[in-house]
User: Fold this.
Amino acid sequence: VCIQEKVPGVQVTVLSEKFSPHTTSDGAAGFWEPHILNDTPQELIRRWGDETWDHLKTLYLSPVACDAGVILLSGYHLHKQPQQDPDWASTVFGFRHLTKQDLQQFPGFSSGWFSTHLLCEGRKYLPWLMTKFKKAGGKVQQGKVTSLTELADRYNVVVNCCGIGAGELVGDSTVQPVRGQVYRVNAPWVKHYLIAHEDCYYIIPCSNNVVLGGTAQKGNWNLSPHPTDSKAIWEGCCQLVPSLRKCKVDHEWVGLRPSRPKVRLERESVGKGSSSLEVVHNYGHGGAGITLHWGCAQQAARLVQEALSLQQLKPKL
Ligand SMILES: Cc1cc2nc3c(=O)[nH]c(=O)nc-3n(C[C@H](O)[C@H](O)[C@H](O)COP(=O)(O)OP(=O)(O)OC[C@H]3O[C@@H](n4cnc5c(N)ncnc54)[C@H](O)[C@@H]3O)c2cc1C
Ligand SMILES: O=C(O)CCC(=O)C(=O)O
Assistant:
């Protein structure tokens, strides 16, 4: 969608093995908070995160908020050890430190913050974006790409935004999963998010259900819910909000956060001669793909523009 908006007359095709609701982005809570980004430079996290925040804020304040799956959510970040204020404190709304009175609700936690965040639900947002994309003339094709150069005779530029699949596609062994298991439950009485950072437990209400998480297991590719994780998540979340014991479980889900030493967002020429191709890489967003998505997409679209203006355009089939 960003490319369509930035490059006049461009024809864009989304070529993907899986579509919504079967992607990692569909299962994520969609909570705006930069995390699991390893050594991605702080100034880039701030720039991409803030651009995404502004984009989501605009959607939230518009009539499309419900269709696009963008909501505003307040709640608690809980810590067992004293922490420095996070870099995102000045981006979110109403950041403050928890008082002794706040902390009385949460035995075992000694500090934390209260803040209001935007949340973008992939399961609503992706179909909403797809409608926009198709209306603007975008094409869609299902299929697994095994080599980027196989696309050289069909496209002038390819954007590699394959998430966890990017590692295999471009032979980047630094892409590793950080496995996240969650429950989706019906608990409409839960109106605040709670994130217990050291234990990795969280409770995040979305528009139709509540996400109970989670795990962050590096290098684990198992896409099935594991009973040991289910038990730990259930007990951890029920300790935070005991009334959750009464909730009805909708389903469990596992996703692989596409982790990398740092987000890869750059241009590269791959292949030689007739199979050479301009590629824009945009992958490795760890636990923050939704948090950074619009800022990264803007940058990727600028790189597409650059790649198009550098090459002599030949008509392709
Ligand atoms: C449990 C959990 C909770 C999360 N919560 C949050 C959150 O609250 N906030 C947040 O910001 N982030 C969150 N994340 C992280 C977020 O989900 C990811 O960073 C994000 O989904 C990555 O998006 P992506 O588009 O790169 O990958 P994906 O959503 O996985 O999309 C990649 C696409 O590429 C396609 N593809 C891959 N390889 C190929 C190939 N070879 N050929 C063709 N197509 C291919 C796939 O089919 C898919 O359609 C969470 C992740 C998990 C697991
Ligand atoms: O911890 C958060 O900010 C919300 C959940 C999340 O982003 C994740 O599980 O990766």
